[in-house]
Amino acid sequence: MDGGAANAGARVAVAALVAVAFACGGCTPQPTAATRVPYEYRRIIMGAPCRLVIHAPDEPTADEAAQAAFARMGAMEEALSDWMPASEVRRLPAAAGAVTPVGADLGAALEASLRWSALTDGAFDPTVGALTKRWRTARRAGQVPSAADAVAAHARCGARHVRFDPSARTYSADVDGLELDFGGIGQGMAADAALAVLRTRGITRALVDLSGDIAVGDAPPGRDAWRVELDDPWHTVLLLENAAVTTSGDRFQHMDVATGAAQPARLSHIIDPATGEPLRNRVEVTAVARTATDADALATSLCVMGPKRGRALLERMPNASARWRMEGEGDVVTTSRTWPRPAR
After folding, report:
1. pTM of this structure
2. Binned average pLDDT, 10 residues per bin, the chain of 344 residues
3. What's the distance, Cα to Cα, between the start and end of the chain in Å?
4. What 8-state DSSP symbol labels residue 81?
5. Is 161 exposed, middle or buried (0-12, 13-18, 19+ CB in 10 A)?
């Protein structure tokens, strides 16, 4: 699973994978049609660049809405980040059987992550924190963890070890030292939360780009969709309205390991929960869904699952689709049957 819910490591690479071409880029603001004027804001959120594009009747309204959206994403970071020592997830008890109440954001992340773990037969797993931390350290040091260390960390992983009661909103684990990692879903959840905040302020025409997790609301004035250009060899353009797109892969976050062969082995930042090892296949997945939460979780899961298992999953999901690009196999491209739904 993608390592790091709020960081400039695993997920910052995705910012380069998806480039947003704003639908009204280059147009001159028209004072007689105030909602046509786009206001743009940028800030670092969850250790990564975040961009808001907002259509509002005036600048003070847009400013207030943007600040509220950034504050909402910041609150989610304080709940979900495995990089912030004082975050809520980092303060969960390490001892097996210790039951603790959790806040609304952490509870929502647990509920969504466990749902995705079940949907993907474990390809998505929020409990691989011990593994992602070790491989993150290994990438910085340029040396793989010892086999014994990796086995010990893998033994503390597995969604089956989590006990979460959504009604009481309590959490416990049945093994010592289980560590949660929301890197494969946290930024998508934050992007959705930012859009929701904007909607409560009457702003429905907006785009949130959090390190490549892109969520859009209603189309800009005079347009029927937001135009999103993917950073791929074909400059694929998606037309999105009330939808989201995320790309995940190892293009920027990987580790090359000498094996004695002519070419070193390339290890992804994405962990396969079944093996506890980084992926070795050169895969990049773009997922489109109704929410950034789902697109984020799908992109990570489908990297692990591969096209065959992933296409079978997407047959059961009418409002989502995906494209696999296997760079290590001559740039082979595979799509789900409904690609690029829900894009137009």
Report:
1. 0.86
2. 34 35 37 64 95 96 98 98 94 97 98 98 95 77 74 92 98 96 96 98 97 96 95 92 89 50 60 86 91 97 96 97 83 94 94
3. 29
4. -
5. middle
